[in-house]
Design a protein that fits this description.
The complex is a heterodimer of chains A (492) and B (105).
Chain A: H1 9-17, H2 23-41, E1 44-47, H3 49-64, E2 76-80, H4 107-114, E3 118-123, H5 157-165, E4 170-174, H6 181-187, E5 190-193, E6 214-218, H7 221-231, E7 261-265, H8 275-290, E8 294-298, H9 306-321, H10 339-350, H11 353-366, H12 372-395, E9 398-402, H13 418-422, H14 429-434, E10 438-445, E11 451-457, H15 463-477
Helix pairs in contact in A: 2-5, 9-11, 9-12
Chain B: H1 3-6, H2 16-22, H3 29-46, H4 81-85, E1 91-92, E2 95-96
Antiparallel strand pairs in B: 1-2
The chains are: A alpha/beta (492), B mainly alpha (105).
């Protein structure tokens, strides 16, 4: 019999409804798996033993009384530790928030609770979601279940590692420049960033507000749909929430790609991409063509500048957002004779090096005399990127590329060179700049046995089309492999 | 993408001490030097955005066009005062306590 911890959300939801096992059984299987894998992977910062047990019992009694709250009812869920959870420690992997017990639940979290989900624990991330490897955590790095000497990607690396290893059936993360899709690619699972505004950011500790978006990490495309159905939709508590009706994500899941136009973006394929990754992606594109899609080569010239613009816009917004961590209302406080001294020593001690670097970059880019040349120009470049996407979507229904230029890299490989780390996100950043949805689907392994991710991008609110193509990619790739090294000897 | 490593358009000279003061970060001289060098490398590459002609282009601050979001002026649930204040590093009754801001006259 399959270990319950290896089920998909869709499979577990069916089993729960058929009475084959209970939510308590499912939770126990996930606890057993976490006990085997955590010493190696460090996917979690905290596990909510009591809260999860209560939620599982609650879900089971709801099933008994024929109350169906949706597909996540009774399912163990991992939450990135930048999603605030009432009374449950939320640190953003930062010393500055050690011990912080939020006085409220974020909207995505409330919707999960209302949908009967079992919140299992809070997962590790790069501090304040700034990074691409989960090495920038004040509480130590997470590791990749496919090879614990390699990074799981980031910043949602803990959620990605947990879902890949079976210590959660579904995870949630946030994606500001690729922080859901890149770790999903590196861990061999599905990760999706919804259209900006589709999932409320209320209760997501802000990094770069115009780019941040919550989304699911799952084992299948169908699970991704199920997770988005629970957390998405208008929320008056987020003034940037999309006020219209959400699209029917399931509409095209079984429709295939015949007659669709698939655009291959020349700037995101080929040069700079690892040849094995590109070969896997090319094979997938050929498969889509065989399934009846027409392949269109196209160019988005301004996205060559997306990474540069991103590294002005994201730090600028971060420097403003992180001003709230000042030692007054929550978190760490260091002593100081004056308020300014208290704040300055608190912040210098509480933030790690990558966060300090980005605050400095952003403060500089916003400061008098440099504002227009840096931040102002980056915003204009962002307009050009959006226009390029709009033009591309005249010629193609979806766009495709690798998710990450490489497969998982070794721990420590890129920590000394911030710029080389930033390049990890070159294929994912453009969709954050445009606010459009994008998904990463695992398509196979490279020669070293590490997963390769394939990215499908769609225009704003084009999730049904994106899921439709992603489902076809998934069917063709037939990627069934599971991470097997998660429980090997502890590496040091 | 090797391109990113070799393209240096505008040398950047950061007054890192001033930037750190603006950002309320008490850093040592060594730290300031290290961060200055790292930020300059990143900014030199970020400065590539200046190579794109953008005359007449309006900047985008947000991906979706939205104006202010209003709601009816009705009383709704708010955070529990005690739960909020319980997170304060220092408090005095119902107040957050901070070092003196204004000098006594």
């Amino acid at each position: 019999m399959t270990d319950l911890a290896d089920l998909t959300v869709t499979g577990a939801a069916a089993g729960l409804r058929a009475g084959e096992f209970s939510s308590v059984d499912l939770l126990e299987a996930v606890h057993r798996r976490a006990a085997m894998t955590e010493a190696n992977l460090h996917a979690y910062l905290s596990i909510d033993r009591d809260g999860a047990a209560r939620a599982a019992v609650g879900a089971d009694s709801a099933f008994k009384s024929n109350t169906d709250l949706g597909l996540l009812q009774g399912i163990p869920v991992a939450l990135k530790d930048n999603m605030v959870t009432r009374g449950l420690e939320t640190t953003c992997s930062s010393k500055i928030l050690a011990g912080y017990l939020p006085p409220y639940d974020g909207t995505a979290v409330s919707r999960l609770r209302e949908g009967g989900a079992v919140i299992f624990g809070k997962t590790n991330l790069d501090e304040f979601a700034m990074g691409s490897s989960t090495e920038n955590s004040a509480y130590g790095p997470s590791r990749n279940p496919w090879d614990p000497e390699r990074v799981p990607g980031g910043s949602s690396g803990g959620s990605a590692a947990a879902v890949a290893a079976g210590s959660a059936l579904v995870g949630f993360g946030s994606d500001t420049g690729g922080s859901i899709r890149q770790p999903a690619a590196l861990c061999g699972i599905v990760g999706m960033k919804p259209t900006y505004g589709l999932v409320s950011r209320y209760g997501l500790i802000a990094f770069a507000s115009s780019l941040d978006q919550i989304g699911p990490l799952t084992r299948t495309v169908e699970d991704s749909v199920a997770a988005l159905e629970v957390v998405g939709g208008y929320d008056p508590a987020d003034s940037t929430s999309y006020p219209g009706d959400v699209p029917d994500y399931r509409a095209g899941l079984e429709s295939g790609v015949a007659g669709l136009r698939v655009g291959v973006v020349s700037e995101l394929n080929g040069e700079g991409i690892d040849p094995e990754v590109q070969a896997g992606v090319d094979q997938c594109i050929a498969g889509l063509e065989q399934a009846g899609a027409s392949i269109v080569e196209l160019s988005l010239p301004s996205i060559e500048y997306a990474l540069s613009a991103y590294y002005l816009i994201a730090p600028a917004e971060c420097s403003a957002n992180l001003a709230r961590f000042d030692g007054v209302r929550y978190g760490l406080r260091r002593r100081g004779e004056t308020v300014e001294e208290m704040m300055s020593t608190t912040r210098a001690d509480g933030f790690g090096p990558e966060v300090i670097r980005r605050i400095l970059l952003g403060t500089y880019a916003l400061s008098a005399g440099y504002y227009d040349a840096f931040y102002g120009q980056a915003q204009r470049v962002r307009t050009l990127i959006i226009q390029d996407f709009q033009a591309a979507y005249e010629q193609a229904d979806v766009l495709v590329s690798p998710t990450s230029p490489t497969t998982a890299f070794q721990l420590g490989d890129r920590t000394q060179d911030p710029l080389s780390m930033y390049l990890s996100d070159v294929c994912t950043i453009p969709s954050n700049m445009s606010g459009d949805p994008a998904i990463s689907v695992p398509i196979g392994l490279d020669g070293a046995g590490l997963p390769i991710g394939f990215q499908v991008m769609a225009p704003a609110l084009g999730e049904p089309l994106m899921f439709r193509v992603a489902a076809e990619v998934e069917r063709q790739a037939g990627f069934e492999a599971r991470a097997t090294h998660a429980t090997s000897e502890v590496v040091t | 993408m090797a391109y990113y490593y070799h393209c240096r358009l505008m040398p950047v000279d950061i007054d890192i001490g001033k930037v750190a003061r603006l950002a309320r970060l008490a850093l040592s001289e060594d730290e300031l030097n290290r961060y200055r060098q790292q930020c300059e490398v990143v900014l030199e590459h970020a400065a590539r955005v200046q190579a794109l002609p953008t005359d007449g282009v309006t900047g985008t601050s947000h991906p979706l066009p939205r104006t202010n979001a209003f709601r009816d002026d009705i009383v709704t649930e708010c955070l529990d005062r005690e739960e909020v204040l319980a997170q304060a590093p220092e408090r005095d009754g119902d107040y957050f306590l901070v070092p003196r801001i204004l000098d006594e006259q």
